[in-house]
Write a structure and sequence with these properties.
Length: 634
Amino acid sequence: MNYQEYYQSSLEAPEQFWEEQAKSIDWFKFPDSILSTDEEGLARWYRGGQLNTCYLALDYQVNNGRGAQTALIYDSPVTNTKETYSYQELLEETALFAGVLQGLGVEKGDRVIIYMPMIPQVVFAMLACARLGAVHSVVFGGFAAHELAIRIDDATPKVLLMASGGIEVNKIIPYKPIIDAALEEATHQPQACVVYQRAFVKADMQVGRDLDWEQLRSKASPANYVKLEATDPLYILYTSGTTGQPKGIVRDNGGHAVAMHFSMKNIYGALPGEVYWAASDVGWVVGHSYIVYAPLIYGCTTVLFEGKPIKTPDASTFWRVINEYDVKVFFTAPTAFRAIKKEDPSGQLKKQYDTSGLRYLFLAGERTDIATLEWCEQLLKVPVIDHWWQTESGFPMIANMTGIDLQKIKPGSAGQAVCGFDIDIVDEKGQPVTANEEGILAIKYPLPPGCLPNLWNDTARFKSSYLAPLPGYYFAGDGAYVDEEGYLFITGRIDDIINVAGHRLSTAEMEEVVASHPAIAECAVVGVADDLKGQIPVGFFIMKSGVMCEESNIEQELIKMVRETIGPVAAFKRAVSVERLPKTRSGKILRKIMRAIADKQTFSPPSTIEDISVLTELERLMRNKKIGRIGKID
Ligand code: COA
Ligand code: AMP
């Protein structure tokens, strides 16, 4: 079957299609129903099915002859460490850590928050939770204490797992002070905090609360996997929404396992036994799906890389890793290659490495710009595949399904719809627009297995954010257009979310922080185009009358506040004072127009604009202050 036929079959008979896919994994009990509706009116896949995700990732692989195969390669240029774990070893470590958790009273359904860098222990911890049916929630290390506190209060974990610190290029980041501050701010307190001490940074332990990882491990006995329902949650992953409160995306066990297996085979075109590398972080969905779960469920070897594309030690790191481990499929964000290209434009550093084993390079997290796509193609001589998805989906929704048949690549497009995703481009009323006309990306509900069934403890927000905007559809939050051949081109978010270096952030959340500064009357934070990171946030603020403060001092204070409240990952490094902000007569700030001015894009001001002259004022200011593309000398 070719891609078109396969795709059509998934839309014509979805239950049959996903029943067939479900047969690829080893259930303890095959589902009674493929697709059903729950008491909240939401779609649920594979009810009645019983399985265990950790069993599929480890025990099943060992039982089927992969015990000696390398499951995990840990490569850490920042600590000069390389380790490998076979499937058998990874199973032993995981079962032992599951024993640690069990000893702390962790049971099916309990939540466990994990705040750890890219070290093998984070993989043991995630899989150990899955083994017991505990719901993990990994928080990315670049988030500050306040963000961690929000997640602690929402997920109410029984246990918090952490490492003493991480390394950012050559800077040691102690984690313990961040965690202590988060626990001070949070209302909910976990029963125990387990600390993995790294050699280069020691965490101070709080007696009665903090426990040493290694000590617990040395006394633990391995724990077995438990039988879980397909609809039981595997994890919660918080992602930026359009308010200060992040959304707790829930992933269930059954749909996720099927989607992971399906995508490795049909989208990434990987083969069991091969090395698959996603250079991301376990704190993001890419890390959950394609560093931890999918490669293991599919019997591949996964790479856990603790470093950056540049400076660890230089821009040849990626080529070294691909060469050294014979990586067959590689996945990262376009920004990583823009960083490499900036340091080594002609790709000289690549010459000393043989990357001929590589089959595909997949890029996501932001649109792949054509210059980066072509640069990668010329250097690596493999298909470079942009593909689109979100934390919510857990696996690609638009891609090139290389495992079925490699489709032609259209630079600038994220590809065609993945099986099971019935995508329309519509106007604000939900009416499909014509080919090549920009509109809102809408996906027929229900979404396929693996996608979020709900938000953690917030069905009302799930419905209002995703289902209410366009009845009958899942509202993804992106704009797009589709050409005559069904290729989709993503034009960017249509809400207050921005993508900075492949990281999803909320400008509304940054605005909340900026607005809390005592000297500020009003503000807007806008994502403007950036050559390296894709987008960066810029704050525009109006000072309260009578405040006598240097603009540069306020800027520094705001940068510090955003860094301390949201985290360094927000990359909030510019804030400028303005006299006025562009608004409609009803007082709505025209952020989209501010972004268009910064990005030098054409726009038509709405007829409801309060005073059009503010746009010229803003344009002049951005040019003078060298903000965005308008501030660049051509
Ligand atoms: N813990 C603590 N701090 C972190 C962190 C972590 N896990 N991750 C990032 N940070 C900090 C960085 O140190 C930096 O701080 P600084 O302002 O003091 O320099 C800030 O957060 C921004 O980090 P980052 O976005 O990584 O920018 P960078 O300038 O350090 O590096 C790139 C730029 C392009 C090399 C880097 O962003 C990158 O490798 N991107 C790939 C993105 C990716 O994998 N995305 C996942 C989706 S596939
Ligand atoms: P996240 O949930 O962090 O994975 O971010 C999802 C968002 O990133 C999407 O809604 C898009 O806005 C953006 N995104 C991800 N992949 C792509 C891509 N290939 N092209 C354009 N935008 C993308």
